[in-house]
Amino acid sequence: MAHFTKATGVKDWLNQRLAVETVEKVMMSEYWIPKNINFLWAMGMVLVVTFVLLLVSGIFLLMYYVPTVDEAFYSVNYTIMREVDFGWLWRHVHGVAASVVFLVIYIHMFTGIYYGSYKKGREMIWISGMLLFVAFSAEAFSGYMLPWGQMSYWAGMVITNLFAGGSLHADGLVEWIRGDYVPAQAFLGRFFMLHVLLLPLAIVGLIGLHFAALRIPHVNNQDGEEIDFDVESKKYLDGNKAESKVMRFANDFMSKDMMVVGIFLIFFFYLVFWNYSFALDPVNFDPADGLKTPAHIYPEWYFLWSYEILRPFNIDLGLVLFGFAQVIFVFLPFLDRSPNTCPANRRGTMFKVWFWLMLSNMIVLTAMGKLPPEGIFSTIGLVAAILFVVQWLALPFITSREKKV
Amino acid sequence: MKNKEPIILIVVIFFSLVTYYLVEPFAHGVMHKHVDSENFQYNDLPALTKTGNVANGQELIINAGCVGCHSMEKAGMPAPMDPVMAAQSYGVNPPDLSEAGAVYDAKFLAELIKNPAHALKVEHKFDESKGEMHPMVPFYGMGGDIDQEVADMVAYLQDLAVSPDEVTPAMAFENACGRCHAVGYENWTQIGTKPSFKHEKDSLAFDIKVMEYEESLTKYMGKLPPDLSIYIRSRSEDFLRTFIENPQNHLAGTAMPRVGVTADAADKVLEYMKDSGDTKRHEREEIGKMVMIYIVIFAIFAFLWKKQVWRDLH
Amino acid sequence: MENNSRRGFMGKAFGAVAAVGAVGSLVAMKKSWDPLPSVKAAGFTTLDMTTYQEGVMVTEKWRGKPIFVLKKSAEVMENEKGNPAAEARNIKIGDDNFMVAIGLCTHLGCIPAFRPAENDFLCACHGGMFDASGLVTKVPPPRGFDIPPFKIDGTNLILGEVGPEWQSMKDNGVTL
Question: What ipTM goes with this model?
Fold first, then answer.
């Protein structure tokens, strides 16, 4: 059994029982961060802050939201928007943050791809990150059901129909997921539970895993340089702060994190107060009507690229490719056969082109996913979808030919 | 080493903005038909050439039989029947004319008196040649110069009504829209504001009257005109304005008539819809400004802190 | 060293700014828990006092709470004479006299039952008793029934609004 002595103070008392000083060192002051990184490394903190905004605003919405098909729309648009003091603010913060969190996730993801931050011992960071992406996607979709507007209803209808598996006609599965022949009370009830309990639990757990995965390999840096953290941290602790290649997480990098968070929040609150319709779609301000599909239905912008991969093909091929697009990012660390861990631009023409083409193509897919599937937009969508698949299939070949730089 | 952050920031902003532009303004521009406003000029209607005489107008309105269907509460003339009965007879309750002169455009009123289906742009629904008559009987003249007579009637309506700047949002909405559209969040039904009843029974009796009215209205319009509580959020303001001006421009063949409000009255209608569907907009503006000021200060202090901390690192 | 304290200062200054923001958001959170406007609007109940019968205790509802309304007989009024505590609680509307009170025991909030034979109230929870004017006749209740804010409007009684009669009751310590 551990030996306890009479504590000299509160800190010592806690230290003997919780090792707070060690924890503080491991997590904060002696969590070493390379110096050669840029503001893109602050996206993790930006995501944490956005998640907290979602959590807090969600807690307040939860207190007035009524998860029944008769009351849900009214409780959101009347009770929360008109009656509850600051209810409108919680809703706007929640809706805008749910959209913006995906923008930051995409920036965070492409940062990882660009700098090769999924390679050499950092595979678990990437994989846990992609699991978080999946969990956030499910969270976003289930949350989108809750106002029970036209977009909620028809998104629920269309997405659950995907589970019929095209020619497999697994209609029983679709009915099981809905608990009804169409999205109705049972469906709303279970998606409400998923949104406020099960998925947030999963997300919190995965965030823990994502952070833990980071602690041992340390964060990557913008040159892909391998740093001896023991040597460099010793330099720092000996007072050669300027010479050392590393810095403390707190307060050194944290101060920069906060600076980026500050700038991010200026952008975020501008959207919350003045430019929110991209995140709170007007169509969803019409109550759900199971007998009338809106003229244009489309998912939220962050799902558009994968939605567009589904659209140009016949139902079976579309579903297969859609499934491919959902999971393929997870396998990136194993598909990239290159020996290099450095920025995409320094890995030779092939990967450089691959990276920028992938980014641009996903933006094209996103745009085509929203536009009506007619005429030239259909053709562009088809080409972009094929290109997406081809790029991923080509990745192992491109990268295995890459020379060590 | 050269500081690459500005160029990285530009790249991030560039790709974000391109995505935003394609997904929002561009895609919505493709999806939604753009309709230019005619500023409520009603250029398709003939201009008023005569100056009306209020006293003659009053006499004409009584003699021409307008009050057989319309009430003019302000002039002491009550409705000949209650809204539910009226809707059973005409499809929709004929409006009270007390404030018509302030809410509706004069040219529109003149045309409405002479040729309702044309003024309302519902000739596709009421084709005289097929014997489909608009429930409002046109005014064929009392024997004199019909244009003069109509001008007199319009002059009387304008004289009877409040001055245009006294029109309230509720007045504009209830006159122009409220006999077809309910606004649940403001307690408005097609037969008037629902009072608060002490007994459930009375409340239900009122609801049944509304339902009966809606039944007639549905038969008349083809479908029940929607509740407009939060239309200000589900449709853009620009859409609503041009839609009110001429529904046919957006939805060719719709049963909704052109209501013929003046530009000012249209603004009032929109204000009413904002009060109902975007109730906290003023608070949002104010709180928004305060939050922005705070968050800029937050960012400045974060920047200063970072600068101090990083001084030792390089 | 000087540099260090300067750095410490900026960190603290930033922390203070962040704390101001946190407190500001607490204000919004606090307000989100305030009773809703519809709840507040429903906080008024109008009673038509001509509909009550002498000696019949009627329970009305105001803000979710039971309100005892008892029209007093001449006999009760006779008994009250010379008892200033009971007289102070009397609500006179026209020629009629009423006991109107929140029907919750002032001990721990149970609803006492009216006993027509004894013309008094007995609380089943802890045995507290009140007489027909609402005064305590047996402990544990610490005080007589509380009287809801009211305003007399002709023969109507508006609960929730403060009229001069209730204000003077409150000022004189007749009710809380």
Answer: 0.94
